[in-house]
Design goal:
D-Maltodextrin-Binding Protein, domain 2; globular; 43% helix; alpha/beta; 6-stranded mixed β-sheet; Alpha-Beta Plaits; 3 domains; 355 residues
Amino acid sequence: MSLADLRQKIDAIDTELLRLLNERAEIVHGIGVIKKRDGLQIYAPEREESLLRSLVEKNRGLLPEKSIRAIYREIMSAALALEEDLKIAYLGPEGTWTHEAAIAKFGGSVDYLPQPNVTDVFDHVARRVADYGVVPIESSTEGAAQHVFDLFAEFPLKICAQLVVPIDICLMARGDPAAIRKIYGHPGVLAACRNWLERQGAPHTCEEVSSTRRAAELAGGDPAAAAVGSPLAASLAGLRIVAKNIQNEDNETRFVVVGRKPCPRTGDDLTSVIVSGNIDTGAVLETLSVLNEWRLHVAQVDSHLQSSGSGRFSFYIEVEGHIEDDAVAHAVEKLESQGKRVTLLGSYPRPWRPE
């Protein structure tokens, strides 16, 4: 079969795909009409993850799971945009890894609202200016973002989804890499790739700026300059990626999606809680004993000093299961009966991790 014949077959398949996508959109629209009539949320993270898992299980072709998820992320994003003017607040500015995580979760067809700090993200969702918010909650190199946990006591929001994003720092430029004499970057990003920059031995200076977005803008206006930041920042600024994965060490960051309503269970969920009160070493061991009593697998435990200035500690616990599962619910009841304060941050589908 010739190249022209193969291309003709692709054209025919694309025409049929387009017809099927529009047919799917009409059905999704019908579902949206029913949801609006019954006062249900248009976006359902539990349904989304269940659908993606089902599609991956059905796959018998060449496409890897990563590709299937990316394709259907955009299909579902387009469907959401048809049904509702979905707004997603995130820790900005544009081009940050939180922005990248938000797009990975919601696709490119919804509206994004960058915010200067995490508190503003929570505030926008709580006041219904945004439908959902995306914030970083833990870095494999810097640990938990403890100030985020404190916000759940201030705002009536729940974690309804979580995603893990590998952090890829890249060098981006407009001109010839050999002509680079200055490299712009946020202080934290420059520090995170300092080893690579020093190994290059190039005649360049590094200049700290307020954000990755600003670094990319400056590099875009100077053919003798470059910037370090996310691949998304390079794309938004129209820059070429000169080098990828230049960070000092591999780093994954966990992001959470916060919303106003809890997420129903999928059968493969995680639940996050904060345990506080008169917490000491004995209380931590007592809590872990209760979780073990109900045969709950603890995915993570992380302690931190409470922001109240009391000098007391609280700790974050993530367990396998949903708060509607008997074992999780009974364990929480037992902890509360012991005088501990248990704050439910949310139950959500177990995040997918790329191989």
